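One example copied in:
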Amino acid sequence: MVAATAGTRTLVDVHRNIALAATTAMVFLLSVLMAPTASAHADLQVSTPEDGESLEIAPEEVRLTFSEELFEELVEISILDAAGDLYSTIEVEQTPPPGTDVIFPWPTQAPPGEYSIAYRVVSADGHPVTGTISFSYATTSPEPSPSDTAPEPTPSDSTPSAESSTPSASPAASSPTASAPSSSSAIESSTSSSTDSSSGTPLVVLGVVLLLGVIATSAIIARARQRN
């Protein structure tokens, strides 16, 4: 009777040990399976500018790179000034593939100083991740000088100068032409006067001859009358 009782206890202890070992193995298996899921939260790996960096010129954009892919429509960015007050809020709707980077342009009107970037993202497992980085810069982007922005002259721009030089030269070129009529008119007047004088000379000679003829005739008639 005692031997039977001892055998029953031994069998119960064996079942208990088996159940305990199975439970331990199950817990270990579940912990192994759940470990990747628990570590799948998106962590900030690197940022541009870096956290705490001091820049000479304001950045053109800000880039945040995370360890896991993000939900594109669940990215929120807030810009805080040096006093911790909200300067601007940016809602980033998309991230470049594979979706681990958040890129947004830096406001060009933001004056020099220290700023903080507060981000809130949601990783692929649905876990929200928040954090903050800060940086500063001394000056904004330099304004281009007027000489740098002046357009280069084109052929169409140089045409008016050539055209403007042509009228200025035309009066000098046209002055001989303008004086030509006065010279020709002088020549014509002298020619006409010489022609008139040459044509008037025979008339004077003819008049003198006629006058002499009349005088001679009168003298002959007077002598004839005296003889009679």
Notes: The chain has three helices and eight strands.
